[in-house]
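Figure caption, in words: inputs first, then the predicted bound structure.
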Amino acid sequence: MRHHTTFRQLEIFEAIARLSSFTRASEELYLTQPTVSMQMKKLTDIVGSPLVEQIGKKVSLTEDGRELAQASREIFAILDRYTMSVAQRRGLEKGKLKLMAITTASYFAPRLLGEFSKLHPGIEVSLRVTNKEQVLASMADNLDDLYLLGTPPVEIDVVATPIMDNPIVVLAAPDHPLAGRPNLTLADLAQERWVMREAGSGTRKAIETLFHEHGLEIRPRLELGSNEAIKQAILADLGISALSCHALTLHQPDQFAVLDVEGFPILRHWYAVYPAGRQASLVARAFLDFLLTQRNGSSCAPIGNGACCAVNCGKKG
Ligand code: PGA
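Bound structure (2-phosphoglycolic acid present):
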């Protein structure tokens, strides 16, 4: 039988079996009724026994017909899977990935993108590093595939997947009087001179929320719009600050003192986000899967030569 049956015949038979009607099958397949009948007759001849029984207009399957219907469904499912996997390979061979990362995510996003690119060298990747306002604008205009954020927006309906821990630690210059002192309280810190990120920064909001929850407030001595500028200000003895551990990547372990303060590190996460209405592209989904496979290995940011921020900041447990 397999030498003579055509896919076309199986397709027609599958439609008749599913719709219990020659007429509806011919309509669905845009074929004339005589064509459908002729192909069914050929198929029946090849099998050598009736596949359908017709009572009036109603078509039902014989036992041989039911078996062939099942076989046809399996064949078409296998073909569908094959077609999909070819399309996926093609898509991953030369797709595009447009990524947007909020300020602080720029410390780890390029590394992850680099590793992903090595796995899929044909994919063209672009990364824009920007602030919250622009992230929202880009989401509203559907411009990028995926966003790496510390706080999923509430203004837009999104799908947000946590991909990595984002602990925030308090930093001081190594010779700062509080450096090395155990069990500092938030009240101790509220007295200090603070260097803070700009209003609207996720890092700043997390710090302010923690102090606020304890009935305290920080009055920043200096506001700076970048983590790098804040680190320079700390080293220049302009004050203390709190930053994501990821901002310490590439620094020597002893370049900053990580203070031991109640409530710190503030345990936050990084999220990969896309608008709920948007179907994630094949490449974006592949990148998201890649991020999730990386998740376990990146719960704390390395400082300098492999030392871990979570160790230095006295994270308990
Ligand atoms: P940011 O970081 O402080 O650069 O805005 C994002 C966040 O932590 O939410």
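The longest strand covers residues 158-172.
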